[in-house]
Amino acid sequence: MHHRRHLTALAALATLALSTFAGSASAQEKIKVGFMLPYTGTYAALGVAIENGFRQYIDEQGGKLAGKTVEYVKVDDESDPAKAADNANKLVKRDNVDVMVGTVHSGVVMAMAKVAKDNNTLLIIPNAGANVVTGPLCAPNIFRSSFSNWQPGFAMGKVAADKKYKTAVTLTWKYAAGDESVGGFKEGFEAGGGKVVKELTLPFPNVEFQALLTEIASIKPDVVYTFFAGGGAVKLVKDFAAAGLKDKIALVGPGFLTDGTLEAQGKDAEGLLTTLHYADDLTNKKDQAFTLQYAKTYKLQPDVYAVQGYDAAQMLAAGVNAVKGDLKNRDGLVKGIEAAKIDSPRGAFTLSKAHNPVQDIYLRKVVGKENKNQGVAVQALADPARGCKM
Ligand code: BEZ
């Protein structure tokens, strides 16, 4: 008798424990973030920096947004557009993520945007500048924490024209990011009286620059505008110097040319001028706190990619907090992000109607291991968002 009563009590306890467990699990729903980023290839370091920055912001919130624990899954997109739709579908259909965060490569992000649209999945883009995703493909569920390819390109075009350069050759990988970056440069440069005399390209991610540098040497333009990033940017800057061009022809580009790359480029990058929405010596409080914490956590100096990851998390937080964690309230979540003023290490920014940052573009100069701010090249620059109907 005594023994049986004991068992019953145990069973009751077990039931209670189980239901309590189930109850707390549902009350403590999670927010599932799916990173789709390059973890291999020429953009691998960019992907890692973005994830680091994103996690840093979430960690600063105790790992939770609106009381919900943030958990992560991730896929290496290899910066390969051919695998992009499958990879994005894995996150949406297999992993059931609440939000996709990705990616770096413009060709890959276009496929992600399509999957996000088809499934109405929230997408926050922490780098890829493809003009179309905040242009003709713009949508309520698609946001960008970084830039459009047009933005830093246009700013550098203006800077180059202001410097009275007359002729330019452009050199880039042949894909959306390179084409659109050059497009922005050309617009700014030619409006200021310059002329792009030759547009040179090579396929992504090739870095066989020799023949192209020989051609540049024979054209002798006033300035070379070049879009490369990651491992490709390291190689271009070194090869340009090795070809003996560094003291003869100005080499400029969007800041990706020298961001996160200066350790590897060494003295070959010294003095280069670039335009970007971030610099290494900004003096705002947010950047100082961000930089200190990043160095502590990752034993690295942050770069623009880390900032964009951090701000992607801030944008998600703005949406989630606006609906107090109720992710099913999609309209409220979207409005929350749209209305946010993001306190970014780059300086505070807001979002355009097309969901792209409206931001100052700095002119930077490489001094030692830093991209030093030379002043704002274009203030509060908004992408023209051509073709966006929203
Ligand atoms: C892009 O593909 O959009 C991109 C890649 C690296 C740096 C900047 C832009």
Describe, in plain words, how this protein is organized in 3D:
- The protein is of the alpha/beta class.
- The protein folds into two domains: 30-147 and 282-351, Response regulator (Rossmann fold), CATH 3.40.50.2300; 150-276, Rossmann fold, CATH 3.40.50.2300.
- It is 44% helix and 21% strand.
- The chain has twelve helices and 14 strands.
- The strands form two sheets. Strands 7, 8, 9, 10, 11, 12, 13 and 14 form an eight-stranded mixed sheet that branches.
- Helix 6 links the parallel strand 7 and strand 8.
- It is globular.
- The termini are far apart.
- The chain binds benzoic acid.
- Benzoic acid is lined by residues 104-106, 127-130, 149, 177, 229, 256.
List the defining traits of the structure above:
390 residues; Rossmann fold; 2 domains; 14 strands; binds benzoic acid; globular; alpha/beta
- Under the CATH scheme, which class of the largest domain? Alpha Beta
Q: What percent of the residues sit in helical stretches (DSSP H or I)?
A: 40-55%
* Computed Rg: 23 Å
Uncertain spans, ≥5 residues at pLDDT below 50? 12-27
Structural class: alpha/beta
Shape: globular
Averaged pLDDT:
94
Quaternary structure annotation: single chain
Could you state the CATH homologous superfamily of the largest domain? Answer: Response regulator
Counting DSSP E segments of at least 2 residues, the number of strands comes to 14
What is the H/E string?
A: HEHEEHEHEEHEHEHEHEHEHHHEEE
Tally of DSSP helical segments:
12
CATH-derived architecture of the largest domain: 3-Layer(aba) Sandwich
CATH topology label of the largest domain: Rossmann fold
Strand content: 15-25%
Number of self-contained structural domains: 2
Largest sheet: 8 strands, mixed
Q: Report the span from N to C terminus.
A: 73 Å
